[in-house]
């Protein structure tokens, strides 16, 4: 059985098998959580990312964690919020594809930031709902697999939304 945990703080500090990066399609770094992860992992992360030749929205790619306490980084690209229905599907895909990739690599703990809710403008309330629904469905589907999912909220507001989702 898997489980979901909520943590408020900096995802780069977490000692887990993988942290997820809310990247952009280039996978060559940026601001926000992407910048923080590259900063903490060191230049080798960017060197490995350059070999990946980018990533499509909703998809995910894995690298090592280098100087991070996390062993791996799973880079996913959230949708740039437009208000269309497809945004929801693509955000869901980010969570599902990251979890699938973690399982493919036999990883058992993964931490997610609130993908797309910063620079990419996805409203926090529906994003939290989509994130928890996706993770809970995945854990149900793979109920014979041990996976600890850490939902990492950077700010108080996101942490509160996450706690409300977990209670549902
Ligand atoms: N730990 C955990 N969460 C964080 C951290 C951190 N250290 N730093 C920020 N957050 P954003 P996006 C939260 O903008 O919306 C980048 O430039 C933040 O509070 O990082 O998917 C990429 O290169 C917010 O809730 O990602 C892309 O170009 C959440 O992480 C673009 O931004 C996501 O905010 C991606 O935009």
Notes on the structure:
The protein is an alpha/beta fold. The protein has one domain (about 5-165): Leucine Aminopeptidase, subunit E, domain 1. About 40% of the residues lie in helices and about 20% in strands. The protein contains five helices and six strands, in the order E-E-H-H-E-E-H-E-H-E-H. The protein has helices at about 30-40, 45-50, 85-105, 125-140, 155-165; strands at about 5-10, 20-25, 60-65, 70-75, 110, 150-155. The protein has a six-stranded mixed β-sheet, with helices on both faces. The chain is globular, with a radius of gyration of 14 Å. About 45% of the residues are buried. The structure holds ligand AR6.
| H/E element order | EEHHEEHEHEH
Structural class: alpha/beta
How would you describe the shape? globular
Please give the count of helices. 5
**How many extended strands?**
6
* Portion in helices: 40-55%
CATH class: Alpha Beta
Poorly predicted ranges (pLDDT <50, ≥5 residues)? none
Work out the radius of gyration. 14 Å
Give the DSSP E fraction (strand runs of 2 or more residues).
Answer: 15-25%
N-end to C-end Cα span: 19 Å
* Small ligands present: ligand AR6
How would you sum up the major sheet?
6 strands, mixed
Shape-level CATH architecture: 3-Layer(aba) Sandwich
Q: What is the domain total for the residues?
A: 1
Give the topology.
Elements: E1 3-8, E2 18-23, H1 32-41, H2 43-50, E3 60-64, E4 72-77, H3 85-104, E5 109-112, H4 124-141, E6 148-153, H5 156-167
Parallel strand pairs: 1-6, 2-4, 2-5, 5-6
Antiparallel strand pairs: 3-4
Helix pairs in contact: 3-4, 4-5
Bound molecules: ligand AR6.
């Amino acid at each position: 059985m898997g489980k979901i945990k909520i943590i408020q703080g900096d995802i780069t500090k977490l000692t887990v098998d993988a942290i997820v990066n809310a990247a952009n399609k280039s996978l060559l770094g940026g601001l926000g959580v992407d910048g923080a992860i590259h900063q903490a992992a060191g230049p080798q992360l960017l060197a490995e990312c350059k070999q990946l030749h980018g990533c499509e929205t909703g998809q995910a790619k894995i690298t090592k964690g280098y100087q991070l306490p996390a062993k791996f980084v799973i880079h996913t690209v959230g949708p740039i919020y437009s208000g269309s229905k497809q945004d929801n599907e693509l955000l869901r895909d980010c969570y599902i594809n990251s979890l699938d990739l973690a399982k493919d690599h036999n990883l058992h703990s993964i931490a997610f930031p609130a993908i797309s809710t910063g620079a990419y403008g996805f409203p926090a309330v529906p994003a939290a709902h989509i994130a928890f629904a996706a993770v809970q469905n995945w854990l149900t589907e793979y109920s014979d697999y041990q996976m600890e999912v850490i939902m990492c909220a950077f700010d108080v507001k996101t942490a509160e939304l996450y706690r409300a989702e977990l209670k549902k």
